[in-house]
Amino acid sequence: MPSFSTILVSRSKLSQALKLICLIGIVLINQTAFSQPALTMKKGRETAIAAGLAAHSLVNLRISSLKHHNEINYWKIRGLDKAAPQFFSPRYARTSDITFASAGLLALHSISQNKSSERNNVGLLLVQNVWMTYNITQTFKTLSFRARPYASEPGFSPQKKDDAYSFFSGHTSLTACMAASHYFYDKRQPAVNRKPAITLGLSALAIGTGVLRIKAGKHFPTDVLAGAILGTGVAYLNTRWHAQ
User: Fold this and answer.
1) For the segment 4-57, what is each residue's pLDDT rounded down to a tens digit?
2) What is this structure's pTM?
3) Residue 38 neighbours by CB under 8 Å, 6+ apart
4) How is 50-71 classified by DSSP, letter by letter?
């Protein structure tokens, strides 16, 4: 049974993590906008990207098939990760699934708000960003095979591969990617056409999803932070690559 002082320390560390996430968000909001409003989609390049992503997905499936759930790796829990509860909470897990799905629906809605001439380009860009993020996330999960926080409960015995898919948080990386994809594209639009409410909503859902994954016992804070950085980085680089 954790002492009151231990609980206070854990809450303090979790608070520091949330402040760091908010600070990253503030930095992104104040980034200089891209100068051109249009995306450049070249058939050859987009076909090559799709082929590469498909190949990466197949490699991930192969790596996963070679792993067994008994190979679970119990990393030493240090620093910020000590704030993660070492038990599974179905209620928080279900809620994180809801916020994740809500982010997806809001991202699709943001695509529908674009001009018809640009809608397909924005949709394709989002698909690429999300697929890239998902592939990289799965690669790290299957290679690291890090035990989820709840797997540290006394007497716990791994029963499935999902018990070892902690590093890093896929829910967080994908929601962060959706939020960043909308933000980086939206900042390239004329001020009158921007949709800050959607950016704010997606950002809130991304942060909320990350916090809920920690509280569910599914991920450590470092899993969530790594996922947020990956999703944001992929969205930034691929959007910039497709800018005229």
Assistant:
1) 344 444 455 555 545 455 544 444 444 443 334 468 888 999 999 999 999 999
2) 0.82
3) 118, 121, 243, 244
4) HHHHHHHHHHHHHHHHH--GGG
3-state secondary structure of 243: strand
- Please say whether the beta carbons of 100 and 171 come within 8 A: yes
Residue in the structure block whose two tokens are 């498909």: 54
φ, ψ for residue 243, nearest 5 deg: -80, 145
Are residues 86 and 217 in contact, defined by beta-carbon separation less than 8 angstroms? Answer: yes
Angstrom distances, CA of residue 55 to CA of 131, 132, 141, 178, 228 = 12, 11, 17, 22, 24
Taking residue 12's Cβ as centre, other Cβ atoms within 10 Å add up to 10
DSSP secondary structure, 193-212, as one string: G--HHHHHHHHHHHHHHHHH
pLDDT tens digit sequence for 110-121: 998 888 778 889
Q: 220 near 166, Cβ under 8 Å? A: yes
